[in-house]
Amino acid sequence: MTDASDNAGPMLAADGTPLKQSLARSLRRQKLRALLLVAPLLLFVLFSFIVPIASMLFRSVENSIVSDTLPLTVEALGNWDETGGELPGEEVYDAFVRDMVVAIENKEHTRLGSRLNYEETGMSSMFRRSGRGLRKLDPETDGPFKEQLIEIHEGWGDPQTWRVIKTHSPQVTNGYFLNAVDMRRTPEGAQPQPEDKQILIKLFGRTLFMSLVITGACILLAYPVSYLLATLPMRVSNLLMILVLLPFWTSLLVRTSAWKVMLQQQGVINETLVWLGLVADDARLVIINNQIGTIVAMTHILLPFMILPMYSVMQTIPESYTRAAKSMGATNWTTFWRIYFPQSIPGIGAGSILVFILAIGYYITPEIVGGTKGVFISNRIAYHISSSLNWGLAAALGTILLAVVLLLYWVYDKIVGIDNVKLG
Amino acid sequence: MAALTPISRKPLSMVLPSVALAGAFAGMFVGAGNGSIILGILAGAALIAALAWFYITVLKNEKMARWINIIGFGAGGFAIAGPLGGVLGLLGGWFFAWFIYWLYEGRYRRKLLPYLTAKQVFYHYLFRVICGAIFVFLITPILVVLPLSFNAQDFFTFTPEMLRLDPEGYSLKHYRDFFTNNEWQRSFKNSLIIAPIATIISVTLGTLAAIGLSQSHVPGRRAIMGILISPMIVPLIISATGMFFFYSDIGRFLEGTLGMNKNFVGYLKVILAHAVLGIPFVIITVTATLVGFDRSLTRAAANMGAGPVRTFFKIQMPLILPGVISGGLFAFITSFDEVVVVLFVGSASQKTLPWQMFTGLREQISPTILAVATILVVLSIALLTTVELLRRRSERLRGLSPA
After folding, report:
1. pLDDT in tens, A79-99
2. Distance between CA atoms of A61 and B286, rounded to whole angstroms?
3. Whose C-alpha in A226, A238, A306, B123 is 20 to 30 A from the C-alpha of A316?
4. Does residue A225 sit in the same domain as residue A164?
C-alpha cells in the first residue's frame, strides 16, 4: 500500500509522457485528421456556394453606382434642400457637367440612367439623350450650365430629377428591399408604390397561397397511399413503391412536358373528355397557363416527396395498437382518429415542410404550365435577372425568399432533424 | 395472407344490383360518347344485370362465361368505336366477367378478417379504389409520353390514326430527329461532358468529407453538416441568382486577367456549379452507409500492419461502395436534370439537354421533346433499378436484414 502512495504522480503512458497529456494529444490529432478530411469539401462549398449567396445578399443593398459615377454632384447636392421644391444652384449643375463628361468618356452614363430608371420612369432616356448634348460642353469654359442643361432636356429643370439622384446617392441602400415589398425610397422616407406598380406583394401572397394549396393537395393524396404502402405485406408494397419512385426519379422536365401534353386545349385530358362526350368540343376545359395548371402539375411532381417521409413514419406504427383499440370496443373511426392519426403526424409534418420549401422556390414548372396567372415569385426573379436587368431588385427578392426558406428549414430541423433526411 | 375466411356463394339479390351499378357507371361513358348519357346508363345496367343472371342461373360454367363475355364485349366495342373501342371492350369484358364471379362466389371476403361487417368490407375496397386512382394519377403522365413520342405527325396529341391503332400513325421520326439534329446532339454531348465531371468532383470530395464527419470527434459537426447540406435546401432559383452574379465576375477575371479560353471557362463555371448541387446527396447517402460501419474492422486491419491508405481502399471502400455509387447516381441525375442554374450561369455553347428541352417547351414545340423524354424515362428506370440493387447489396454486406 505504501508503495502505491509513493508513486502517486501522474499516470504514465508507454512512452513515458503523462497519460492525460498523451490522450489529449491523440484526441487533438484525431480532430485534426477529421477536419483535414472535411476541409477540401468545406472550402469548395464555401467558395462556390456560400460566397455566391453572400454576394447576392450584398448586391441587394449595394448602390455605389450613383456616387461612383457622379461623385462631385453627390457632394454638391448635400447642401441642397430637396423638400423645398426649388431647383438646386449653379454649383450642382457645374459639378454634374464635370461628372457627366467623365462618365460619357467611360460610357457609364447609360448604365446610371437605367439604374435610376428603376426608380423614376424616363430617367434612362433622359440620360441617353443628354449624353449627346453634354459631350460638346467643356466644363472649364462653357459655364454657367443651368440654362444650357435645361435646354438640352427639360428634365434637368424638374426638381424631382435631382431629388431622385440625391435619394439614391448613398453607397448602401434599402431601396431594393422597399421595391421588393411594393414601396419606394423617396426624400420623405419610404412610400408605397403607385397602384399600378404594386405587383410584388400580390405575387408573394400568391406564391405562399399556391404553395399551401399544393402542400394540402399532397397531404390529401399522399396519406391514403402511404397508409396502404405501410400496411400491405412487404412484397406487394415494394412493387407498388415503384409507382412512387419512378416519377421521383424521372427528369423534372419530362414530367413537366408530360403535363403540358396532358393539360393543353388539344391535350390528352381534353381529347378524352370530348371523345367520351363529357365536354363539348367548343367548351374545352382551360387547365393550362393558369393556376390550375401549376397546382396540378406541381402536386404531381412533389407528391413523392410527401409520400416517402409519411411512409417511413407510418411503417414504424405498430399494428398491435390499433388492434388493441378495436378489441376494447373502439369503432374504426375512433381507432383511426385517436390512435393511428396522432402517431402519423410527424410524417405529415416532415413531408409538408419539405414540399412547402420545394414548392415556394419552384421555377421551371410554373414557367411552362403557369402562363401569366400561375407564376411564382421565382419567375419574377428570373425575369429581373434576364430581361429587365434590375439585378438589385432580383437580389432583394431572392434574399427575402431565402429568409423564408431558412426559417422553414430551421423549423424542419427542430421537428425532424437534418440528419434524418433520407433518399429513395 | 392465405384464405382467412371460408367463403360462400352470395344471393342474386345482392349480386345483381351491384353489377348493375357497375354496368351503369361504364354505360354512362359509352352513352356519353354516343349521344345519350341516360340511355347509356340504363342500357349498361340492364345488360350487365341480364348477363350476370344468365351466367349464374343458366350457364353455370365460369370459364365459358368469361370467354363469352370477353369476346362479346370486344366485338361490341369494335362495332361502336373501331380498334381502340375493341381493345377497351376486351378489357371491359374481362373485368365484368371477373367482377360478376368475384361477387357471386364471395371471393372478395377471402382475404379479409371474418368478423368484418358488410359496411367495413365495402369501405375496405372503396379505400383500395381511391388509392388505385392516386397511383394512376402518379404514373399516367409518364406513361402518356411514351406512345406520343412515336407520333408520325408533328403534334403533341394523339392523332386519329394513332387512336385507330393504324401503323401509319406511328413512326420513329422524332427519334431520328434527336439523333441527327445538330442542336439536340450538341446539347446531349454537353450534358454528357458536364454531368460526369461534376459527379466525379462531388463524389470524391463528398466521400472524403463524409468519412471525416463520421469520426467520433469533429468540432462543429452540426454547423459543417448544415453548410454542406445547404445547396439542397436553398431553392435553385436563389442558388442560380447568387451564382449568376458571382460566376460572371469570376469568369471575367479568368478570361480577362488570366487570358483563359472562353469556352473552357464556360464549362468550368457550369461544372463547378453542378458539383456543388450534387454534394448534399453524396454526403447524405455515404453518411447513411457509414452509420452501420463496424469500426473494429479498420482497427483489425491496422493491427495487422496495414497503413491508413491501404485500410481505406481494402477495407472501408468496398463496404461503403454501394452508398458512394448511389450518392454518385443522385449527383449525376441532379446535374443531368438541372436547368435553372445552367440557364443562368452557362452561355449558349454550354447548352445542356434539359436546357434544350426547356427552350423547346417554351418556344417551338416539337415532339422530339417527347422522344427525348422517353429516352430519359428509360434511363431513370435503369438508374432506379441500380440504386435499389445497390441498396440491397449494401444491407447484405453490412449484415442488416433486408427491408
Report:
1. 887 777 778 888 888 888 888
2. 39
3. B123
4. no
What is the average pLDDT across A310-314? 89
Global pTM? Answer: 0.84
- Say if residue A92 is in the same domain as residue A213: no
- Under the banding of pLDDT at 50, 70 and 90, the label for residue A7 is low
DSSP A191: E
Using the predicted structure, report yes or no on whether residue B79 has a pLDDT greater than 60. Answer: yes
Q: What is the domain count for chain A? A: 2
Range of the domain at A124: 65-172
CB of A381 within 8 Å of a chain B CB? The answer is: yes
Question: B398: which 3 cell numbers?
Answer: 453490412
Q: Quickly tell me which residue has 460501419 as its cell.
A: B293
Angle in degrees, 0-180, between the axes of helices B182-214 and B353-362, rounded to the nearest 10: 130
pLDDT (tens digit per residue) in B240-297: 999 998 998 888 888 888 888 888 899 999 999 999 999 998 998 888 888 777 888 8
Distances (CA, A) of A12 to A20, A346, B56: 8, 51, 93
Whether residue A193 lies inside any domain: the answer is no
Of A35, A250, A275, which has the smallest distance from its Cβ to B212's Cβ?
A35
Q: Which residues in chain B are classed under CATH 1.10.3720.10?
A: 182-365
Alpha-carbon torsion, ordered B193, B196, B198, B199, to 10 deg:
170
From chain B residues 122-151, the ones with a CB under 8 A of any chain A CB are: 123, 127-128, 130-131, 134-135, 137-142, 144-145, 148
Superfamily of structural domain B182-365: MetI-like (1.10.3720.10)
